[in-house]
Specification:
The protein is α+β, with helices and mostly antiparallel strands and about 130 residues long. Helices cover about 35% and strands about 20% of the residues.
Length: about 130
C-alpha cells in the first residue's frame, strides 16, 4: 500500500484542500513553495499514462480547479504543473505556485513549514476551491 493510498483511506493524516468521489488534493509535506499541492486519483495507478482515459481527463479537470483556487490565494505569477512519477508509485500531479522557472525545480531545498502554517494554507485553498 502506497503512502497516498494510506492518505486516501485516512490511515495517514494530510492537509486536504479538495476532494470528491474520485480525486483528492492535499498539501505536499515537503513543499517547494507555500501552497505546493498534490492531486491524485483515489484509485491507485502507478503510472499516470496508464490511467483510463475518462479518469485521466477527470484528474486534469479536477487539478485545474485546484490550481485556480491556489492562484486566488497564494502570491504567485502562475501555478506550475508537473508530473514526475518517480517518488511515489501512485499517479499524481504537482501544482506549485511559481514566480520564475527555477521555482519548479525539484532539486531546490524543500521548505519546512509549521503545522499551523500548513493548516492555514490548506484552509485558504479549500475555501477558494469551494467558491
Amino acid at each position: 500500500m502506497t503512502i497516498f493510498e494510506k492518505i486516501v483511506s485516512g490511515d495517514i493524516p494530510s492537509y486536504k484542500v479538495a476532494e470528491n468521489d474520485d480525486f483528492l488534493a492535499f498539501l505536499d509535506v515537503f513543499p517547494l513553495a507555500e501552497g505546493h499541492t498534490l492531486v491524485i486519483p483515489k484509485k491507485s495507478t502507478n503510472y499516470i499514462f496508464d490511467i483510463e482515459e475518462q479518469e485521466y481527463i477527470g484528474l486534469h479537470l479536477f487539478a485545474k480547479k485546484v490550481a485556480l483556487a491556489i492562484d486566488k490565494v497564494m502570491p504567485c505569477a502562475r501555478v506550475g504543473s508537473a508530473v514526475v512519477g518517480l517518488e511515489v508509485p501512485h499517479a499524481h500531479i504537482h501544482l506549485i505556485p511559481i514566480n520564475e522557472i527555477g521555482d519548479i525545480s525539484f532539486q531546490k531545498e524543500k521548505l519546512q513549514l509549521s503545522p499551523i502554517r500548513m493548516q492555514e494554507i490548506a484552509d485558504s485553498i479549500s475555501e477558494a476551491f469551494s467558491q
